[in-house]
Amino acid sequence: MKFMIKKLMLLLMFGFIFLYALTATAPLADSFPETSIGETVIHRGYDETASKNLVAAILLDYRLFDSIFEAGILLISAAGVLYMSRSSGFSKPFPRAKEAAVPKDSDSILAVSRILYPFMLLFGFYIIVFGDLSPGGGFQGGVILATARLISVYIPEKASENTDPLNRLEKILFLCLLILGFISLFTRGTPFTNFFSGSVDPEFRRLFLVLLNLLIGLKVSSGLTIIFIRFIKEGK
């Protein structure tokens, strides 16, 4: 019963966000010239969003509600995989690497994994933090972090036992994304945009983009890690 209530509340929350986003952003196209939306973004993107990467300007400002909705889809997908794997009898914690089906003579895999793991973590966070300045961002960096987590399966001292903490973390991060997206409703009268006004220095407004990328990156990493681990568990 409690699980059904949670699903209903989640469905209502997504429905409210979706309908509000549709009504709040309906006049968006009218604010651009009919034949030069791309040119308008190119010329006004940095001044309005403080992002030098115009793709990030679109994902984290002009179409922020889309990005949050996509993060919600991943949350639902991870929850579905977790629920189905548990319903299929795979509710036990994920085994440590020494118990996993790794060949005994795979010392080279273990050695390479230990070498790559910290560099992949560092590269993933770099892609996330500087996603508004160069190609990358929370979604791309989150995938790299999840891949690093998958590599850590082969490192005994880094292998975790279950996905429940990640499941809770993903929900908390998504809630933080929603809160961050709605702050601008109270500071600027418009939701899903930078809560700093346009008069604030662009380098300072960039903090909003970095924070968004961090939340998205950690959330994507958590969701994909859950899916990876449960698929590996079910395949054994």
In short:
It is found in: Cell membrane. This protein is 69% helix and 0% strand.
What does this molecule look like?
The chain has one domain (52-90, 104-234). Helix content is 69%, strand content 0%. The protein has 8 helices and no strands. The radius of gyration is 20 Å and the shape is flat.
Averaged pLDDT? 81
- Strand/helix succession: HHHHHHHH
Beta strands, count: 0
Largest sheet: none
**Total domain units:** 1
Annotation field: number of helices: 8
Helix content: 55-70%
Family: Belongs to the CPA3 antiporters (TC 2.A.63) subunit B family.
Keywords: Cell membrane, Membrane, Transmembrane, Transmembrane helix
Transmembrane segments: 68-88, 109-131, 137-156, 168-187, 207-232
Protein name: Na+/H+ antiporter MnhB subunit-related protein domain-containing protein
Task: Name the features.
transmembrane, mainly alpha, flat, membrane, transmembrane helix, single chain, Na+/H+ antiporter MnhB subunit-related protein domain-containing protein, cell membrane, 236 residues
List the helices and strands and how they pair.
Blueprint: H1 2-24, H2 37-49, H3 54-62, H4 64-87, H5 107-129, H6 138-151, H7 164-187, H8 202-234
Domain Na+/H+ antiporter MnhB subunit-related protein: 112-225
Family: Belongs to the CPA3 antiporters (TC 2.A.63) subunit B family.
Keywords: Cell membrane, Membrane, Transmembrane, Transmembrane helix
